[in-house]
Amino acid sequence: MADLALDALIDRVRAARADKTTLNLIGGHTKSFYGEAPRGSALDLRPLAGISSYEPSELVVTVRAGTPLAELEAALAEKGQCLPFEPPRFAANGTVGGMVAAGLAGPARAAVGGVRDYVLGATLLNGRAEVLSFGGQVMKNVAGYDVSRVLAGSMGVLGVICEVSLKVLPVPVASTTLRFERDEAAAIKQLNTWGGQPLPINASAWWDGMLVLRLSGAAAAVQSATLKLHGEVVDPALAAGFWTGLRDQTDEFFTKAQAAVAAGATLWRLSVAATTPPMALPGEHLVEWGGAQRWVVTTAAAAVVREAAARAGGHATAFRGPKTDGALAPLSAPLARIHREMKTAFDPDRIFNPGRLYPGL
User: I need a surface site. Which of 31, 57, 166, 180 has the fewest CB within 10 A?
Assistant: First the structure.
């Protein structure tokens, strides 16, 4: 049976290559703010939609890239399963392909891993209009170069992600949210102490003097940890709203951040060692992932923010707002060469999402 949606995409890529034009890969328009500014003629991937196969007993789903993320999550929820890395949705119409291409993960990232850890296989339409398949549908089926996982976070610069196979997991049996009054330094120290203990910590967040902790897993383990930690138990409905708001960046911190961005500030995402003390940067701070991810809303110069992140052994991404110094941290010369060679191998004519990840890619 002919695949009309895929055939149409192949024709568009062939035409773009012949005309020497570029294509801006789009799905639900929910992440157009992320990375560098989109360029090129729009190539809508939403017609390439649908769940190709789902084996709940095998914890594997194969889904086409234009499928709404909400549709996939609803299908998983019917079977008591989920995407454990909690991809941010930002809005209701995000797609699975955008989720993989952006490579972003939510509050549980430090405990369960990121998007690339759950990508088992992928089908890619490259810049030569060739359809390539990588990986498979089981963990042990991956041999050779693990290209399918390279696609996670590639921002579409290597080609059109047509379909992905993802590992999924059961929804945790039990979950409890606790909160503690702590300043930032005390919260980071406490998180690192807990991180060395056998506790079912699934997510954490600190902002404005309050540390919030989510425990998830077996009921006995969650109950035991709750008694041990002596935190204030948060009402389940309030807790669910809090974690959803944090995941989708609709909670109070991010709402205020967007207002500050509208006034000229930048929302920065810093990836640093979890043990890093509070960052000496002006502005509002939010701490996630046990201390390993820091959000900072500030008008400080990009060089100041990136220098602070580098001193902590990490890097900084301009997530929202002005990106005059580039969205992502500059690459070292060897890494930049690898990126260029990957781009040339998959998209020699520089058709897809030019400059969206880094200039020249």
Answer: 57
pLDDT at 40: 96
CA dihedral 245, 90, 81, 165 (to 10 degrees): -150
Q: Euclidean distance between the first and final Cα of the chain, in Å?
A: 36
What confidence score (pLDDT) does residue 58 get? Answer: 96
CATH code, domain carrying 242? 3.30.70
Measured CA to CA, the distance from residue 53 to residue 31 in angstroms comes to 26
Question: Which residues, listed in sequence order, are joined to residue 211 by a DSSP beta bridge?
Answer: 180, 206
In this structure, the answer to whether residues 73 and 137 fall within a common structural domain is: yes
Query: Which residues of the chain, if any, have pLDDT below 70?
Result: 1-2, 136-145
What is the span of the domain harbouring residue 312?
252-320
Structural domains in the chain (count) = 3
Cα–Cα distance, 188 to 173 (Å, whole number): 28
Residue 337, φ and ψ in degrees, nearest 5? -65, -40
Nearest CA to 254 out of 53, 95, 90 is that of: 90
CA atoms of 236 and 234, how far apart (whole Å) = 6
Model-wide pTM > 0.90: yes
The three-state (H, E, C) secondary structure of 163-198, written as one string: EEEEECEECCCEEEEEEEECCHHHHHHHHHHHHCCC
